[in-house]
Amino acid sequence: MDNYAKITYEGKTYKLPVVKGSEGEKAIDISTLRQKTGLITLDPGFANTGSCISSITFMSGEKGILRYRGIPVEELARHSTFTETAYLLINGVLPTRNELNRFSVLLNDNSLVHEDMQIFYQNFPRASHPMGILSSMVNALRSFYPELQTVEEEINKTVTRLLSKTRTLAAMSYKISRGHKVIYPRTDLPYCANFLNMMFDSPVKPYRINRDMVKALNVFWILHADHEQNCSTSAVRVVGSGRVNLYAAISAGIAALWGPLHGGANQAVIEMLSDIAKNGGDIDTVIKKAKDKNDPFRLMGFGHRVYKTYDPRAKIMKKMCDKVLKKLKINDPLLDIAKKLEEIALNDNYFIDHNLYPNVDFYSGILLRAMGIPTKMFTVMFAIGRLPGWIAQWKESADDPKWRLSRPRQIYTGPTKTKYIPIDER
Ligand code: SDX
């Protein structure tokens, strides 16, 4: 196999090194292209561009594979917990029992947020979207924990603070949005049970921890924990490359995830399925709109930049929906509509020809509804799940001795040199 590629331009041939990954992926290293040829590359949306070398997550879009530090996500969903998976992503190895216990204690020790932060919530309009609140509040954490992140020990403290306090901030925003008393984290509860308790416990009706829900939430967050260089992870890396603090970089990731083409799709899927239900289950109109080139409507929860086959996470999510709804005797008409929609789409040439399959967001909202999570908080749930991935990816770039400021080039197509015309002569 050649370990270089040749480019011939204006009669000259240039050799560029080819980099090969542990799973056989190959890339042309173009870091010397401009200096050798005067050329840059152009790749809107970066569909053909690798931004970094990473050892955290591997996806195969053709085979529908997803592995965190080499471990298939199916195995982690079956055997692991979200806390253990977060440790794996951030530290690169599965923890020993002692390491996991110490990590869990650290998460619990850092689960409270400063009382003054509750005042911030009072000033958001009640109808504020929880993603905008979360992004602002995570950024605000820096004001309460201004330590520089220069040494390992401070970085690790910031990491556990972020993992633990972001979950507390999310539950707080829900309680305050409903005008209910804020429920504090409990040190006797593990990560996921603690969140459900903060969300649903109340002085008048104590919340009974439901083991099925806790397991489902662990799996939900494991499935969302990392996903290579997606839009929000790239935002964390790009913002982090300016050497800003980790809270600000994660806040940028939360903002990037909010969009309906990215993490906001889980909320958009439920809104789409609810509309279909309202229109008497009229799926055909939705399919027609999704296929209409002149209609900007997209089938939400379908399609993916990398997966050109079934998203492995969607498979697990769909099975979990069946299992949890059956166990809890919940009959959600939106699940039947989702399955019908999937069946029609997967047998329609437009979706087959475009390699459009359900992605992680297609069924995730059904599961969140069964947990009692309000639709507007679905993307917040995605953000909490993605936190370990964002942090691991930020750490990997910060640990890279060649960590550079991200600053892409462009091809300019605006006016060439133009004279300034004084206002009275225009
Ligand atoms: C996430 O990157 C990640 O890893 C993201 C994520 C993660 O874990 O971080 O997996 C999470 O963001 C999942 C994706 C959630 N978004 C949605 O479900 C929104 C609906 N999906 C689409 O908008 C779309 O599929 C994207 C944005 C996900 C991917 O779009 P691409 O790769 O930019 O592809 P494209 O928009 O260029 O579409 C290619 C073709 C087009 O048709 P042609 O013009 O070539 O004929 O496919 C069509 C599109 O019209 N198409 C769809 C479609 N998605 C693509 N047509 C109808 N419905 C859709 N959903």
TrEMBL record:
InterPro entries: Citrate_synth-like_lrg_a-sub, Citrate_synth-like_sm_a-sub, Citrate_synthase, Citrate_synthase_AS, Citrate_synthase_bac-typ, Citrate_synthase_sf, Citrate_synthase_typ-I
Entry keywords, A to Z: Acyltransferase, Transferase, Tricarboxylic acid cycle
Catalysed reaction, written as an equation: oxaloacetate + acetyl-CoA + H2O = citrate + CoA + H(+)
Active site (record annotation): 304, 361
Keyword Repeat set for record: no
A GO CC term attached to the entry: cytoplasm
Signal peptide (UniProt feature, chain positions): none
Pfam families cross-referenced by the UniProt entry: Citrate_synt (PF00285)
Gene Ontology biological process terms from the UniProt entry: tricarboxylic acid cycle
UniProt pathway annotation: Carbohydrate metabolism; tricarboxylic acid cycle; isocitrate from oxaloacetate: step 1/2
Record-level Gene Ontology MF annotations: citrate synthase activity
SUPFAM superfamilies: Citrate synthase
Record family assignment: Belongs to the citrate synthase family.
Name of the featured protein: Citrate synthase
